[in-house]
Amino acid sequence: MKEETSNNSRRKFLKSVGLTVGAAGVVSGFSLLGAAKAVAQEPGETVNLLTQDGQLVQVDKNQLRPTVSEPLTELQKRGREGIAGKSFVMVIDLSKCRNARKCMDACQNHHQLRPDQHHINVLQMQDAEHTAPYFMPKPCQHCDNPPCTKVCPVDATFKRQDGIVLIDNERCIGCRFCIAACPYSARIFQWTEPKDAEKYKDLTYNIEANVPQKKGTISKCLFSADRLRENKLPSCVSSCPNGVYYFGDQNEDAVTNGTTHETVRFSQLIEENAGYTLLPELGTKPRVYYLPPKNRAFEFNGDLLNEENLH
Amino acid sequence: MNDLPKQKETTLSFEKIKEDILRPMQNHKGLELWIAFLITVISVCAWAYYVQLRDGLGVTGMRDYVSWGLYIANFVFFVAVSLVGMLISSILGLLRIEWITPISRIAEIIAVAFVAVAGLVIIMDMGRPDRVVNVLIHGRFQSPILWDITVVTTYLVISVLLLILPMIPDLAICKNELKKTSPVLKKLYNILSFGYINTPSQHKHLHKMIRTLMVIIVPVGLAIHTVTSWLFAATLRNGWDTTIFGPYFVAGAFVAGSAALVVAMYFFRVSYKLQDYITDLQFDKMGKLMVAVCLVYLYFNLNEFLVPGYKMKTGDDIHLKELFTGHWAIMFWSSQLLGNIIPVMLLVTKKFRKPLPLMIISLFILAGAWIKRYVIVIPTLLHPHLPIQNVPDNFVHYYPSAIEISVTVLSFALALLIITVLSKIFPIVPICETADNNGIDYKIDA
Ligand code: SF4
Ligand code: SF4
């Protein structure tokens, strides 16, 4: 496994090793420096490694090869290109959202965020004084005319061929122009050292999940681009208990519900339920569609008047 | 009103001009104390910046919603003030207006100092200043930031040239006269005077170059502040999404820049005892100029606030209500009244265009101009299209932190230090041009 470790298995592998004594050795063993040192070691010296199926094996240190520098450029490259032939869309059914916030938790977990950092945020909305209030999950809209990527001076945030807008936190200079430009307030900034920075400091940066997070750079919803590559649904979509989210490929005209796993026609879903996008007058052309909160599956339990609930 | 200073000027001789202008450069105890003070302030505040570098921008009051704060307001202010160089020495210079001669160099020095520090302020605002070269490696022309960096640098270069070129004859004089200065300065004068001895052909070439630069700097100066305004106007936010931001910013810059110039003029006049050169005439004219630019600015303000205020579109209404009567009302109205309306009303009277009253009014205008920048940047960020929810309390308000204030003080002290040092090593009033203007003949030895 050490030779042709794909990045995914390596990450899982690192996770499974956890905090055992071997971990430090393995991590540094895989880091460029560690490996370079290892090559210089006497032959015959071995290290203990845990395989994916849970077996402990001994490997000659000289056989360890650095896998870090290559995959970084490789990850960056494929992260920038995107998945060919796809055109991802999300549909959010507002009639089903009851503010369970499982999507927020799953997202924060997946992207190593603090509890107050939101790639996706469930907002309590009321459109006009006498209209019915509702809950509205709001991820990045992955605009087709994205104001954020236009203003970035270094191309650190960009749109890929499959419609996802990503961030390269290895390149971002932290000017925060994209925050100013995003009308959906979808972006967050790492004002201080990110959560668990120490713990993940040896992890290779994966642009598709934007982890590990980096101080002084931007982060935002990525449609879990790393999970899409493995044919999984985004974290928020899979973790919603109430069937709020549909996610899929516009080219196939099919979206799948994250809770019921039912696949439906995207165009039909939008048409029958009068789907819409947020702030269409701004011309940003979002890829996130909303179904209006009609025939709701629950009582609105929020309190728009109570400021306490809003923060 | 013109004959009073004229009478005085007839008593000037070239020797006296030289003597008056070079004196403060050689021996000025107060100036050295002032420099020491500035350096102390800068060192203390540099520590604040170090803390920010170490711990991240989280030590500031900025958060995900107000992600641009004091620093960007400062940046806009610095760029605005620096435009005075273009206004005075280029536009008025090209119009061959003579009364600007004694103050044109002060204007250029202010321009150089403020635009240089503006560049630094942008870097101080960056989350990853260590990656600033990325802008060169991966720079993209779609981004107004790149245009901004380009024009700020261009403006700085041209302003430096516009400071040095007209000074060449004076530096040739410095080289000959200032025998006791340090060897470093002597060398500097030697190099920068380029062997100028005021032959007719040298004179002609030099003036051709200067005039060319004066023409070039006008579009660059317009560009720098227009592009700065586009940092805001290119976004879709209420309060920034307007088409007149470019000219609006330029007009505001002329107001702020003129005020800064008047304050500096007053200081140099008193401290360097240059009453014979920076006369009441200059203050009087500057006062009139300020009325003119303030009126233009007022007109833009009317357009900027009255038109959306009339319609009260969704989104704009919250923003405007907060400005007019809400949380920002005190700052908004004080910037409009102190920085614009009241000064215009006062400055139409001659007695307020005397040095001291004009200087005091200018201080208010400067303060108003700074507050105005603050009110442009922050309230808009606090009123996004979608509500601010589920975030900690300090995301919903913005108060600059002590670190931010220290770094701000740092940038101001730095600008003042640059001005002070430049005015210490260079003659602050053009010697040869003053002589030229008074029809006094002079020779420069090789
Ligand atoms: S929602 Fe904001 S961050 Fe996302 S693509 Fe649109 S502008 Fe960019
Ligand atoms: S903060 Fe980073 S991603 Fe955003 S515009 Fe600046 S460089 Fe680009």
From TrEMBL, chain A:
Ranges where the 4Fe-4S ferredoxin-type domain occurs: 131-162, 163-192
Entry-linked InterPro entries: 4Fe4S_Fe-S-bd, 4Fe4S_Fe_S_CS, ET_IronSulfur_Cluster-Binding, TAT_signal
Ranges in coiled-coil conformation: none
Keyword vocabulary terms for this entry: 4Fe-4S, Iron, Iron-sulfur, Metal-binding
Gene Ontology terms, MF aspect: 4 iron, 4 sulfur cluster binding; metal ion binding
Name of a matching Pfam family: Fer4_11
Name by which UniProt lists this protein: Hydrogenase
Species for this entry: Labilibaculum antarcticum
UniProtKB/TrEMBL annotation, chain B:
Predominant localisation class: membrane
GO cellular component, one term: plasma membrane
Keywords: Cell membrane, Membrane, Transmembrane, Transmembrane helix
Superkingdom of this protein's organism: Bacteria
InterPro entries (UniProt xref): NrfD-like
Pfam assignment, any one: NrfD
Membrane topology: Multi-pass membrane protein
Family under the similarity heading: Belongs to the NrfD family.
Record-linked PANTHER family: POLYSULPHIDE REDUCTASE NRFD, PTHR43044
Protein name (record): Polysulfide reductase
Organism: Labilibaculum antarcticum
